Amino acid sequence: MLTLARLACCAAGLAVAALTWSEPAAAQRVIRVGQADTLTGQNLPELIAMANAEKRLGVKFNVVALKSDDVVFQAVINNEIDIGIGDAYKGIDTLKAPVRHFFLLRRVAYFPVVNSETYKTWKDMNGADMAVHARGSATEAMALQMEKANGIKFGQISFVPGSEVRIIAMRRGTMKATLLDLPNTRKLTEEDPKKFIVLPVETQSASDEIFYATTKFIADNKELVQVLSEELLKSLRIVNADPKAPARLRTELGLLKDLPKPLADDITPYFEMAVPGGLFPTDGGGAAAAKADFDFLIAAGRFKGQNADYKIEDFWDLAPLEAALAKVGKN
Protein backbone atom coordinates (compact mmCIF):
# COMPACT_ATOMS: atom_id res chain seq x y z
CA MET A 1 0.00 0.00 0.00
CA LEU A 2 1.22 3.48 -0.81
CA THR A 3 2.25 5.40 2.27
CA LEU A 4 1.69 9.10 2.69
CA ALA A 5 3.70 11.24 5.05
CA ARG A 6 3.49 14.88 5.95
CA LEU A 7 7.01 16.25 6.23
CA ALA A 8 8.11 19.52 7.78
CA CYS A 9 11.37 21.25 6.98
CA CYS A 10 13.46 22.01 10.05
CA ALA A 11 17.03 23.03 10.85
CA ALA A 12 18.16 19.44 11.11
CA GLY A 13 16.59 18.46 7.80
CA LEU A 14 13.24 16.74 7.21
CA ALA A 15 11.09 15.48 10.04
CA VAL A 16 8.05 13.23 9.72
CA ALA A 17 5.03 14.98 11.19
CA ALA A 18 2.36 12.37 10.54
CA LEU A 19 1.62 9.11 8.80
CA THR A 20 -1.84 8.66 7.37
CA TRP A 21 -1.41 5.37 5.54
CA SER A 22 0.10 2.07 6.61
CA GLU A 23 3.84 1.78 7.21
CA PRO A 24 5.59 -0.59 4.75
CA ALA A 25 7.10 -3.82 5.98
CA ALA A 26 10.69 -3.41 7.17
CA ALA A 27 12.03 -5.82 4.56
CA GLN A 28 10.54 -3.90 1.65
CA ARG A 29 12.43 -1.18 -0.14
CA VAL A 30 10.85 2.26 0.21
CA ILE A 31 11.04 4.80 -2.62
CA ARG A 32 10.68 8.30 -1.25
CA VAL A 33 8.72 10.65 -3.54
CA GLY A 34 8.32 14.34 -2.73
CA GLN A 35 6.08 17.07 -4.05
CA ALA A 36 4.94 20.51 -2.89
CA ASP A 37 1.60 20.77 -1.09
CA THR A 38 -0.63 18.06 0.31
CA LEU A 39 -2.17 15.36 -1.83
CA THR A 40 -5.73 15.64 -3.10
CA GLY A 41 -7.86 13.88 -5.68
CA GLN A 42 -6.03 15.85 -8.36
CA ASN A 43 -2.98 13.67 -7.67
CA LEU A 44 -4.74 10.41 -8.49
CA PRO A 45 -3.06 9.85 -11.90
CA GLU A 46 0.39 9.54 -10.30
CA LEU A 47 -0.92 7.69 -7.24
CA ILE A 48 -2.61 5.12 -9.47
CA ALA A 49 0.61 4.68 -11.44
CA MET A 50 2.67 4.23 -8.29
CA ALA A 51 0.21 1.72 -6.85
CA ASN A 52 0.47 -0.39 -10.01
CA ALA A 53 4.26 -0.02 -10.12
CA GLU A 54 4.39 -1.32 -6.54
CA LYS A 55 2.72 -4.54 -7.61
CA ARG A 56 5.22 -5.08 -10.39
CA LEU A 57 8.36 -4.12 -8.48
CA GLY A 58 7.65 -5.27 -4.95
CA VAL A 59 8.59 -1.86 -3.50
CA LYS A 60 6.66 0.75 -1.56
CA PHE A 61 6.31 4.36 -2.61
CA ASN A 62 6.28 6.78 0.30
CA VAL A 63 4.76 10.04 -0.94
CA VAL A 64 5.71 13.07 1.13
CA ALA A 65 4.27 16.57 1.04
CA LEU A 66 6.83 19.37 1.36
CA LYS A 67 6.51 23.12 1.76
CA SER A 68 7.55 24.22 -1.74
CA ASP A 69 9.12 23.18 -5.03
CA ASP A 70 12.43 24.59 -3.82
CA VAL A 71 12.32 22.36 -0.73
CA VAL A 72 11.53 19.34 -2.92
CA PHE A 73 14.54 20.09 -5.15
CA GLN A 74 16.84 20.52 -2.16
CA ALA A 75 15.57 17.25 -0.67
CA VAL A 76 16.40 15.44 -3.92
CA ILE A 77 19.96 16.74 -4.19
CA ASN A 78 20.52 16.11 -0.46
CA ASN A 79 19.31 12.51 -0.86
CA GLU A 80 16.47 13.05 1.60
CA ILE A 81 14.00 11.88 -1.04
CA ASP A 82 14.58 9.76 -4.14
CA ILE A 83 12.20 11.29 -6.68
CA GLY A 84 10.82 14.80 -6.89
CA ILE A 85 7.68 16.00 -8.63
CA GLY A 86 7.70 19.62 -9.76
CA ASP A 87 10.04 21.77 -11.80
CA ALA A 88 13.81 21.40 -11.45
CA TYR A 89 14.83 23.55 -14.42
CA LYS A 90 16.00 26.63 -12.52
CA GLY A 91 17.88 24.57 -9.93
CA ILE A 92 19.64 22.53 -12.59
CA ASP A 93 20.55 25.66 -14.56
CA THR A 94 21.73 27.72 -11.59
CA LEU A 95 23.51 25.04 -9.56
CA LYS A 96 24.50 22.74 -12.43
CA ALA A 97 23.05 20.04 -10.20
CA PRO A 98 23.28 16.38 -11.31
CA VAL A 99 19.50 16.13 -11.58
CA ARG A 100 17.40 15.21 -14.60
CA HIS A 101 13.70 15.17 -15.45
CA PHE A 102 12.36 11.89 -16.79
CA PHE A 103 8.54 12.12 -17.11
CA LEU A 104 6.08 14.96 -17.70
CA LEU A 105 3.00 14.53 -15.52
CA ARG A 106 1.05 17.75 -16.03
CA ARG A 107 1.19 20.77 -18.27
CA VAL A 108 0.77 24.34 -17.11
CA ALA A 109 -2.90 25.25 -17.13
CA TYR A 110 -3.91 28.88 -16.79
CA PHE A 111 -7.11 30.12 -18.32
CA PRO A 112 -8.04 33.62 -19.56
CA VAL A 113 -11.17 34.53 -17.61
CA VAL A 114 -12.95 37.73 -18.67
CA ASN A 115 -16.03 39.72 -17.77
CA SER A 116 -18.32 39.05 -20.73
CA GLU A 117 -20.10 42.35 -20.21
CA THR A 118 -16.88 43.98 -21.46
CA TYR A 119 -15.08 41.34 -23.53
CA LYS A 120 -16.37 38.37 -25.49
CA THR A 121 -13.54 37.52 -27.92
CA TRP A 122 -9.78 37.83 -28.21
CA LYS A 123 -10.34 40.65 -30.72
CA ASP A 124 -12.07 42.59 -27.96
CA MET A 125 -8.96 42.15 -25.80
CA ASN A 126 -6.72 44.13 -28.14
CA GLY A 127 -5.67 47.16 -26.11
CA ALA A 128 -7.33 45.84 -22.95
CA ASP A 129 -5.62 45.29 -19.61
CA MET A 130 -4.72 41.76 -18.44
CA ALA A 131 -3.95 40.95 -14.80
CA VAL A 132 -1.40 38.25 -13.97
CA HIS A 133 0.24 36.95 -10.82
CA ALA A 134 3.71 38.53 -10.88
CA ARG A 135 6.57 39.69 -13.06
CA GLY A 136 8.52 36.70 -14.34
CA SER A 137 5.70 34.32 -13.39
CA ALA A 138 4.14 31.60 -15.52
CA THR A 139 1.03 33.75 -15.85
CA GLU A 140 3.04 36.62 -17.35
CA ALA A 141 4.66 34.22 -19.81
CA MET A 142 1.21 32.88 -20.71
CA ALA A 143 -0.11 36.40 -21.29
CA LEU A 144 2.77 37.18 -23.66
CA GLN A 145 2.22 33.92 -25.52
CA MET A 146 -1.53 34.63 -25.84
CA GLU A 147 -0.79 38.04 -27.38
CA LYS A 148 1.30 36.36 -30.07
CA ALA A 149 -1.15 33.50 -30.66
CA ASN A 150 -4.13 35.82 -31.14
CA GLY A 151 -2.43 38.72 -32.91
CA ILE A 152 -3.27 41.28 -30.24
CA LYS A 153 -1.47 43.61 -27.84
CA PHE A 154 -2.67 44.13 -24.30
CA GLY A 155 -2.93 47.72 -23.18
CA GLN A 156 -1.18 46.82 -19.95
CA ILE A 157 -0.16 43.66 -18.14
CA SER A 158 -0.68 44.35 -14.45
CA PHE A 159 0.77 42.30 -11.60
CA VAL A 160 -1.70 41.27 -8.90
CA PRO A 161 -0.33 38.44 -6.71
CA GLY A 162 -2.75 35.77 -5.56
CA SER A 163 -5.60 34.10 -7.44
CA GLU A 164 -8.01 34.85 -4.58
CA VAL A 165 -7.17 38.57 -4.80
CA ARG A 166 -7.81 38.58 -8.54
CA ILE A 167 -11.08 36.69 -8.08
CA ILE A 168 -12.31 39.32 -5.61
CA ALA A 169 -11.38 42.08 -8.05
CA MET A 170 -13.22 40.29 -10.85
CA ARG A 171 -16.33 39.96 -8.68
CA ARG A 172 -16.24 43.66 -7.77
CA GLY A 173 -15.75 44.67 -11.38
CA THR A 174 -12.46 46.48 -10.74
CA MET A 175 -10.73 43.88 -12.90
CA LYS A 176 -12.12 42.71 -16.23
CA ALA A 177 -9.63 40.06 -17.40
CA THR A 178 -7.13 37.79 -15.69
CA LEU A 179 -5.38 34.44 -15.88
CA LEU A 180 -6.41 31.84 -13.30
CA ASP A 181 -5.46 28.24 -12.60
CA LEU A 182 -8.00 25.47 -13.17
CA PRO A 183 -9.63 25.31 -9.69
CA ASN A 184 -10.08 29.08 -9.47
CA THR A 185 -11.30 29.26 -13.05
CA ARG A 186 -13.98 26.76 -12.14
CA LYS A 187 -14.86 28.66 -8.96
CA LEU A 188 -15.42 31.96 -10.73
CA THR A 189 -17.16 30.69 -13.86
CA GLU A 190 -19.52 28.45 -11.87
CA GLU A 191 -20.55 31.39 -9.68
CA ASP A 192 -21.86 33.32 -12.66
CA PRO A 193 -21.38 31.48 -15.98
CA LYS A 194 -23.03 34.27 -17.98
CA LYS A 195 -20.87 37.05 -16.58
CA PHE A 196 -17.53 35.22 -16.38
CA ILE A 197 -16.37 33.29 -19.42
CA VAL A 198 -13.15 31.60 -20.54
CA LEU A 199 -11.73 32.72 -23.87
CA PRO A 200 -10.54 29.90 -26.15
CA VAL A 201 -6.93 28.91 -25.66
CA GLU A 202 -4.73 26.40 -27.42
CA THR A 203 -3.39 23.36 -25.56
CA GLN A 204 -0.68 24.68 -23.28
CA SER A 205 2.62 22.93 -23.87
CA ALA A 206 4.77 24.14 -20.98
CA SER A 207 5.34 21.75 -18.09
CA ASP A 208 3.85 22.19 -14.64
CA GLU A 209 4.83 18.99 -12.82
CA ILE A 210 7.61 16.66 -13.93
CA PHE A 211 9.17 13.62 -12.27
CA TYR A 212 12.88 14.06 -11.67
CA ALA A 213 15.76 12.50 -9.75
CA THR A 214 19.53 12.63 -9.46
CA THR A 215 21.52 11.17 -12.33
CA LYS A 216 22.91 8.58 -9.89
CA PHE A 217 19.46 7.44 -8.79
CA ILE A 218 18.27 7.08 -12.39
CA ALA A 219 21.43 5.17 -13.39
CA ASP A 220 21.25 2.87 -10.36
CA ASN A 221 17.50 2.21 -10.73
CA LYS A 222 16.90 1.83 -14.44
CA GLU A 223 14.18 -0.83 -14.11
CA LEU A 224 12.33 1.08 -11.40
CA VAL A 225 12.31 4.37 -13.31
CA GLN A 226 11.25 2.64 -16.52
CA VAL A 227 8.42 0.69 -14.86
CA LEU A 228 7.19 3.83 -13.12
CA SER A 229 7.26 5.64 -16.47
CA GLU A 230 5.30 2.79 -18.08
CA GLU A 231 2.63 2.94 -15.39
CA LEU A 232 2.42 6.72 -15.64
CA LEU A 233 1.84 6.42 -19.39
CA LYS A 234 -0.92 3.87 -18.78
CA SER A 235 -2.55 5.91 -16.02
CA LEU A 236 -2.60 9.17 -17.96
CA ARG A 237 -4.02 7.45 -21.02
CA ILE A 238 -6.81 5.95 -18.90
CA VAL A 239 -7.59 9.37 -17.42
CA ASN A 240 -7.69 11.01 -20.84
CA ALA A 241 -9.97 8.28 -22.17
CA ASP A 242 -12.34 8.43 -19.18
CA PRO A 243 -12.28 11.38 -16.73
CA LYS A 244 -14.47 9.36 -14.38
CA ALA A 245 -11.79 6.67 -14.03
CA PRO A 246 -9.73 8.36 -11.27
CA ALA A 247 -12.64 8.34 -8.81
CA ARG A 248 -13.41 4.71 -9.59
CA LEU A 249 -9.79 3.58 -9.35
CA ARG A 250 -9.35 5.46 -6.09
CA THR A 251 -11.95 3.16 -4.56
CA GLU A 252 -10.66 0.01 -6.24
CA LEU A 253 -7.06 0.63 -5.19
CA GLY A 254 -7.83 2.04 -1.75
CA LEU A 255 -6.16 5.39 -2.39
CA LEU A 256 -6.66 8.56 -0.32
CA LYS A 257 -9.05 6.80 2.04
CA ASP A 258 -9.21 9.76 4.42
CA LEU A 259 -9.96 12.34 1.76
CA PRO A 260 -12.76 14.67 3.01
CA LYS A 261 -16.06 14.21 1.21
CA PRO A 262 -16.10 17.66 -0.45
CA LEU A 263 -12.69 16.91 -2.00
CA ALA A 264 -13.79 13.41 -2.99
CA ASP A 265 -16.91 14.82 -4.64
CA ASP A 266 -14.72 17.23 -6.63
CA ILE A 267 -12.58 14.51 -8.24
CA THR A 268 -14.67 13.79 -11.33
CA PRO A 269 -15.66 17.44 -12.02
CA TYR A 270 -11.97 18.38 -11.84
CA PHE A 271 -10.88 15.74 -14.35
CA GLU A 272 -13.83 16.47 -16.63
CA MET A 273 -12.45 20.00 -16.96
CA ALA A 274 -8.76 19.12 -16.86
CA VAL A 275 -8.81 16.53 -19.64
CA PRO A 276 -10.29 18.80 -22.34
CA GLY A 277 -7.84 21.46 -21.14
CA GLY A 278 -4.96 19.21 -22.19
CA LEU A 279 -3.36 19.02 -18.74
CA PHE A 280 -2.29 15.40 -18.99
CA PRO A 281 0.06 14.46 -21.86
CA THR A 282 -0.01 10.86 -23.01
CA ASP A 283 3.58 10.69 -24.27
CA GLY A 284 5.56 11.55 -21.14
CA GLY A 285 6.93 14.79 -22.54
CA GLY A 286 10.54 14.10 -23.52
CA ALA A 287 12.46 16.23 -26.00
CA ALA A 288 9.40 18.10 -27.26
CA ALA A 289 8.44 19.06 -23.71
CA ALA A 290 11.97 20.22 -22.94
CA LYS A 291 12.06 22.50 -25.99
CA ALA A 292 8.62 23.92 -25.15
CA ASP A 293 9.78 24.51 -21.57
CA PHE A 294 12.88 26.37 -22.73
CA ASP A 295 10.65 28.74 -24.74
CA PHE A 296 8.31 29.17 -21.80
CA LEU A 297 11.09 29.79 -19.27
CA ILE A 298 12.75 32.32 -21.58
CA ALA A 299 9.41 34.13 -22.06
CA ALA A 300 8.90 34.13 -18.29
CA GLY A 301 12.36 35.59 -17.72
CA ARG A 302 13.65 32.58 -15.79
CA PHE A 303 16.06 31.63 -18.57
CA LYS A 304 18.15 34.03 -20.63
CA GLY A 305 19.11 33.85 -24.28
CA GLN A 306 17.52 31.63 -26.92
CA ASN A 307 16.15 28.10 -27.06
CA ALA A 308 19.23 26.89 -28.92
CA ASP A 309 21.40 27.94 -25.98
CA TYR A 310 20.00 25.09 -23.88
CA LYS A 311 20.70 21.38 -24.36
CA ILE A 312 17.98 18.84 -23.67
CA GLU A 313 20.44 16.36 -22.17
CA ASP A 314 21.42 18.90 -19.52
CA PHE A 315 17.88 18.84 -18.13
CA TRP A 316 16.34 15.50 -19.15
CA ASP A 317 17.35 11.84 -19.20
CA LEU A 318 15.28 10.54 -22.11
CA ALA A 319 16.32 6.88 -21.84
CA PRO A 320 13.68 5.72 -19.30
CA LEU A 321 10.84 7.35 -21.23
CA GLU A 322 12.02 6.01 -24.58
CA ALA A 323 12.23 2.51 -23.10
CA ALA A 324 8.76 2.86 -21.58
CA LEU A 325 7.27 4.06 -24.86
CA ALA A 326 8.86 1.11 -26.65
CA LYS A 327 7.18 -1.21 -24.14
CA VAL A 328 3.77 0.46 -23.81
CA GLY A 329 3.55 1.95 -27.27
CA LYS A 330 3.39 5.50 -28.55
CA ASN A 331 -0.02 7.09 -28.36
Automatic annotation (TrEMBL):
One of its GO terms (biological process) is alkanesulfonate transmembrane transport. Pfam families: NMT1 (PF09084). It is found in: Periplasm. Residues 1-17 form the signal peptide. Residues 114-244 form the SsuA/THI5-like domain. It comes from the Bacteria. One of its GO terms (cellular component) is periplasmic space. Keywords: Signal. Its main location: periplasm. Belongs to the bacterial solute-binding protein SsuA/TauA family. PANTHER family: ALIPHATIC SULFONATES-BINDING PROTEIN-RELATED, TAURINE-BINDING PERIPLASMIC PROTEIN. This is SsuA/THI5-like domain-containing protein.
